[in-house]
Specification:
paralog of FGE (formylglycine-generating enzyme), Rossmann fold, four-stranded antiparallel sheet, 22% helix
Length: 518
């Protein structure tokens, strides 16, 4: 049984736990520390025993971990005792010179499953016996953008400027060797797969019920469970409720939507977890083709503000409006047709001010996309295949000549919110695809990665372009994908300051007391 110590900064705990569960599924006995050590064991003593028992260390590279004295002490101890170390890059950082000479596994730009496969191979090469349980590498492999020759489109190009052009693509199809090594190793390995044991000091909220939030269970394995207790040093405490800090959601289907009325609003809970934000080069190519099928003049350049992909993790859950904010909620009764229709014709500042007046805020671009896609990274809120019956876009009732006559829903413009229940996302949010583009808090910037710390989440900057998400009733199917982005310059004194195809929804930060609310 391979014993692996995971060293990480507290900022990266969600990703660390996801990686721990993945490695545990391969048969590894994982030691991963958290803030609270059980009574009777000092933190430093537990770390010391964990390091001594470990056969290898995985150290998560991020700006925070590279400035953490505790993380440095941990990997330095392994170096001093000649224990193998495998760095994994979560976010770009200045890597310590002693670690910089060790080849890292790139979880930053590559899809998670591909990086996990590479980590498996590297740990196996260092002599650790593991049993692979990741998907076939030929299916999981997606070249990173820097391998594809992708270049961002010129700044200022929006989705309305359908720039012609072709992106140069060079596809690298390796990993046959990885598949061979994986198959050979799985045949040699007969080690039982233990359940992952995490040291956790986060107790389950006593007011939450099983109908509010489901309890997490680990997926079954094909191998028998060991009858001997795992060698994890720190024992478990009360199990953490799925989706709350300490127990991230790993797949869309493992999550049961949680819906609550809080502050007089219908909200859905968006749980703790990780996802790959943005589009792969293949998804950009597919979007360009989908656009061309409608307009006959699209290229990759229209969608390269969605690349490259990057892993984004949420340490805290949050609440989101089930639907777009309506005329009735906004207090526009009589001024606009229908209280149940989405409130449109407002600026980004208007939307931001309304959310703040409700004790809420606009979602960040990353929050919006995560609520629409989930850990599985779906292309649309309901899955990976377009279905015109699940949303309001420019279909047969639309007035424009690019309408899709394959579908008709009876709405020539906006539809009442919640009119398409089959289009619900994995968290239960409605109308994330179509109806109206939705304001986010995020300043429009590209290429990725999305970094909240780089200034794009500056609420006091009214002059910068803000990002809109989700597509609208007057536009094409390709722009209703969950990765699609549009931008708009605030205070330009043009008709685009507000529009009848721009709306919004609000989010609210989570507190454990929310489960006690009626």
């Amino acid at each position: 049984m391979a014993r692996i110590f995971i060293s990480y900064s507290r900022t990266d705990e969600v990703f660390a736990r996801q990686l721990a569960e993945s490695l545990s599924g391969m048969g590894a006995d994982i030691w991963i520390d958290v803030e609270d050590i059980p009574v009777g064991m000092k933190w430093s003593s537990a770390i010391q025993q964990g390091l001594d028992a470990a056969e290898a260390m995985v150290v998560i590279i991020s700006p925070e971990s590279m400035t953490s004295r505790n993380v440095e002490d941990e990997w330095q101890y392994c170096l001093d005792h000649n224990k193998p170390i495998v760095p994994v890059l979560l976010r770009p950082a200045k890597i310590h010179f002693q670690l910089n000479r060790i080849q890292y596994i790139d979880f930053h730009q590559q899809p998670y499953e591909l990086s996990l496969r590479q980590l498996y191979v590297e740990l196996s090469r260092k002599g650790l016996t593991l049993a692979p349980n990741t998907p076939d590498p030929a299916l999981a492999y997606r070249p990173a953008p820097h391998q594809m020759g992708v270049r961002p489109v010129a700044a200022g190009a929006g989705k309305r400027n359908l720039v012609l052009g072709l992106g140069a693509i060079g596809v690298i199809a390796l990993l046959a060797l990885i598949a061979f090594l994986s198959q050979s190793q799985s045949q040699r390995s007969a080690t039982p797969t233990p359940a992952l044991v995490l040291a956790t000091g986060i107790a389950q909220d006593p007011t939450a019920t099983s109908t509010d939030v489901p309890t997490a269970t680990l997926p079954p394995t094909d191998q028998p469970t060991s009858t001997s207790p795992p060698a994890t040093l720190a024992p478990t405490s009360t199990p953490v409720t799925l989706g709350l800090p300490g127990n991230p959601v790993m797949s869309n289907r493992s999550w049961t939507p949680v819906r609550r009325t809080l502050g007089g609003r219908e909200l859905v809970l968006v749980p703790v977890g990780c996802f790959n934000m943005g589009s792969t080069p293949q998804q950009v190519e597919a979007a360009a083709q989908q656009c061309s099928d409608t307009l006959g003049q699209c290229s990759r350049a229209n969608y390269e503000d969605e690349v490259p992909t990057g892993l984004v993790c949420f340490e805290q859950p949050f609440w989101m409006d089930v639907t777009e904010v309506t005329n009735g909620q906004y207090g526009s009764a009589g001024a606009f047709p229908g209280d149940a229709y989405p409130r449109t014709n407002l600026t980004w500042n208007d939307a931001q001010a309304y959310c703040q007046s409700q004790g809420m805020r606009l979602p960040t671009e990353a929050e919006w996309e995560y609520a629409a896609r989930g850990p599985d990274g779906w292309v649309y809120p309901w899955g990976n295949a377009f279905d015109g019956s699940r949303l309001n876009y420019c279909e047969g009732d639309c007035q424009y000549n690019w309408k899709d006559t394959a579908f008709r829903d009876g709405y020539a413009t906006t539809a009442p919110v919640g009119s398409y229940p089959a289009g619900a996302s994995w968290v239960g949010a409605l109308d994330l695809a179509g109806n109206v583009w939705e304001w986010t808090s995020t300043i429009y910037s590209y290429p990725y990665p999305y970094l909240a710390s780089d200034g794009r989440e500056n609420p006091s900057d009214p002059g910068s372009k803000r990002t809109l998400r989700g597509g609208s009733w007057n536009w094409i199917a390709a722009d209703t994908r969950a990765m699609s982005r549009d931008d708009f310059a605030e205070n330009t004194q043009t008709r685009f300051e507000s529009s009848d195809w721009y709306g919004f929804r609000c989010v609210r930060d989570f507190t454990p007391a929310d489960f006690a609310s009626p």
